[in-house]
Each structure stands twice: as C-alpha cells, then as structure tokens.
Fold this protein.
Amino acid sequence: NPQNWMNPPYLNSNRMYGSYEVTILRNGEIAYPATVTVPYEDEADRKVFASIPKYTGAPGYVGGVRCFIGKWNERKDDYEWTCSKPVFVPRRISTRGMGEPVIAELKDGRLLLDMRGSNAGLDPVEYPGRRWISVSSDGGRSWAPVTDLRYDTGEQFYAPSSMARFIRSSKTGKLYWIGNMSRGPAKGN
C-alpha cells in the first residue's frame, strides 16, 4: 500500500531477510533458507520481551526460518517455489530468534539447517549462547524440532550470535561446520 507502506501488522507478518547461500541439492532442486517473522507469544515470552533490547522485533512475534525450495520447470522455463513451515524457538531461548541460516545436504540425503540465536538481554550463564540446528528428511519441506549443535561426543559448547557455514571436503567427503565458539558463556553477539 503506497499510502501506508510502514503498516506494522503487514510488516510484522510479511518481512524476511535472506540467507547468504543457496544450496543445490543432489535431486536438482535448490534450497534457500530465510529468516521470517512468526506469530508467537506466551506469558514467559511477554516477560522476556519487556526486559530485552528493543532491536529484537515486535511483540507477539519471534524470528524463525523458512526453507524455500525451488524446482526447475522446463515447460515454464522458470523455477516453481514451495516453502516449509517456519522453524523457531521461543524468545526465552533466543531473544533475537533464529537467523543467518545455512543448509547442508548430508550424505544420506537429509538436510541440516544451522541457525544463530542470541541471548541478548538474558543472563548468559542461565541462558547460554548456542548454535541451533534442525534436520529435514523430506528435502526441506518440514523440519524436526530445533536443538543445539553439539560435538560428536554429545557435549554442548558455547557460541556467540554470529554467522557460520558448512564446507564439504572434496578429498574426504566430510562435512565441516565453520563457526565461532566461545570459551565461556557468550553474551549476545
């Protein structure tokens, strides 16, 4: 609406910012994760929202991630797009929501989604900064509940709110996560 382009209800439910990487899947589709706003609010999150920095979004919404899947249609000479339901956690887990998502295709065909979170405004010892992940078994159309990324041993680690990426070795085929880790509880970024 050119006369009301800053309409808050519209912006809160229709904004997104894109990822920095497209993943080309073995089946020829492309996966593109993007951060979106997700309607979510409960009493605990209302309390958290009231006590955190104001750059964390709008009340009643949290930052989540949707995966956009593009499949080439030769007849139309264009991509056809579908998207997943949003992946998110309550604001009391990540005050700034999920962001800067990146996807890797695992050897068994599942997709691994990595996202940064933030504990800005929360006690960093009680709510330590982590890297957040989800797994899809259907090409990014649906995602398992969000959990924290851990070492191969299952041990947790601390992480600031920062970008990360996946790199697969062309020599060994191993998938590597490249990101920031902290020696102790990170506070926000």
Remarks:
- DSSP finds two helices and eleven strands in the chain.
- The first strand starts at residue 16 and ends at 18.
- The CA atoms of residues 38 and 61 lie 5 Å apart.
